[in-house]
Predict the 3D structure of the following.
Amino acid sequence: MSQSPRQARPLFCGNWKLFGSLSESLALATGVRDGVAPGPVDVAVAPGFVALASVVAQLKGGPVAVAAQDCHWETKGAFTGEVAAAQLADAGCRYVIVGHSERRQFFGDTDTTVAKKTRAALAAGLSPIICVGEMLAERDAGQALPRVGTQLDAVINEMNEADLLASVIAYEPVWAIGTGRNATPAQAVEVHAFIRGRLTARIGAAARKVRILYGGSVKPDNIASLMSEEEIDGALVGGASLTVESFVKLVKEGTAACLRS
Ligand code: 13P
């Protein structure tokens, strides 16, 4: 277990990716809302764009916030198919995921565009959940930390303390996403501590308050070992967030582990 106490309020965010009709999204959101009590952690869900406003309305006043899965960096203009960060804020979102590895792999997101999306999110009053993470070949070549460092620096270099405190970093090793092969707590802690070091170099001790989430095959049965590490401030969850039972169990197990650590 790491030495320094966790200073950030943990966050568990379900990323629903391209899953769920409107009625399925509303049912899942309602189940999560009813299953998690307000407590010492934050909980969020990230439905697809079409369901966002309805899910926001459904969750209003409850303990579960809403995140979008991506945004565009411009506020308006001729950008067919894109959604502006301000539109997401207007729809009631609190967070927006930027730079997810699936966006980087399949839709051309780069360190440069992720930095622009992050700036747009902050300008719109949203908390960006900034994803970084290495490919398997990079890990095998001993390049995990340099790769994550490059991705992170591209985004945080122009951010001040207030920007960073409003942001969330998510470490998602690409080889652990959807594979059932999660990083061990020790592997995650090594990268989280590295990220924390980079943040500390920019904003000093306040870096301990920036939430650094782990993502990649997080399940109800491995969340406790991850959350017993004080470098890990929560999780970004894909597959295990798609049923009420599994996500609520994950949040409960994760919260209990935070309280013990
Ligand atoms: P899984 O939890 O399905 O591995 O997905 C992780 C992820 O990509 C969350 O953003």
Summary: The beta strands are 11-15, 42-46, 64-68, 95-98, 127-132, 168-171, 211-215, 234-237. Residues 15, 100, 172, 177-178, 215-218, 236-240 surround 1,3-dihydroxyacetonephosphate (CB under 6 Å). The chain has eleven helices and eight strands.
